[in-house]
Amino acid sequence: MSARRKLLPKKQRALATLARLKQLYPDATCSLNYETPTQLLVATILSAQCTDERVNLVTPALFERFPDAYAMAAADLTELETLVRSTGFYRNKAKNIQGACRKIVTEFGGEVPRTMAELTSLPGAARKTANVVLAHAFSINAGVTVDTHVKRLSRLLGFTKHTDPKKVEQDLMKLIPQPDWENWSIRLIYHGRAVCNARKPACDRCELADFCASAKPATPLAAAAERSTAGIT
């Protein structure tokens, strides 16, 4: 029977994991296409229960037709629904987009607000959306963006036991330095897509495995192959 792996203390592991993620994905950035804070807000609302790739197929026509908050606020709702239909839940998304843009126009002078409290007062903008907009549009780290990848991988790594995104975020904020809150999220998202697949995590080729509380131990054959590659007999 193999001995149980000894892991570094949680805080130390989190910082080591962050450093490794930065090495693995040095150019990681938001994968949604946008030119303005309003467009990023709209794209992030559309990304709920939808892939970024699909959103990026939809937004060029949407932003050409309605390029800013004023245009979105005055848009015909039926036309807006048609343009965002393929992202799913299109009626609710169109309603939230228009509601958010109307509030931006009437209460914030047509400019996307720059605080968590103000952003989360907009229809369709919960903490995840607000964190994305603040981090990528304004370089403000107000919290940790917790999407399905971040929640799943943070649990697998052993940095939280929670499933509620707000509680996951609070746990991560205690472990990760504030300037790196968005660095953590965006790089975990990349790693979730590239290696730690929800259906079949590739533990055998995961470069975070030595920090991961859930990593499957290597088989003797795989371990021997790894030692051979490293020149160890």
Tell me what the structure shows.
The protein is built from 12 helices and no strands. It has about 230 residues and is mainly α. The protein has 2 domains: about 10-25 and about 150-210, Helix-hairpin-Helix base-excision DNA repair enzymes (C-terminal) (Endonuclease Iii, domain 2, Orthogonal Bundle); about 35-140, Endonuclease III, domain 1, CATH 1.10.340.30. The longest helix has 18 residues, at about 90-105. The radius of gyration is 20 Å and the shape is elongated.
The largest sheet is: none
Number of helices: 12
> Which fold name fills CATH's third level, the topology of the largest domain?
Endonuclease III, domain 1
What is the global morphology?
elongated
Number of domains: 2
The average pLDDT is 92
Summarize the structure.
By secondary structure, the chain is mainly alpha-helical.
Indicate the topology:
Layout: H1 10-24, H2 37-46, H3 52-65, H4 69-74, H5 77-84, H6 90-107, H7 116-119, H8 127-138, H9 148-157, H10 165-175, H11 181-194, H12 220-229
Helix pairs in contact: 1-11, 2-6, 2-8, 5-6, 9-11
What key attributes describe this structure?
12 helices; mainly alpha; 57% helix; 233 residues; disordered C terminus; elongated; Endonuclease III, domain 1; Endonuclease Iii, domain 2; 2 domains; single chain
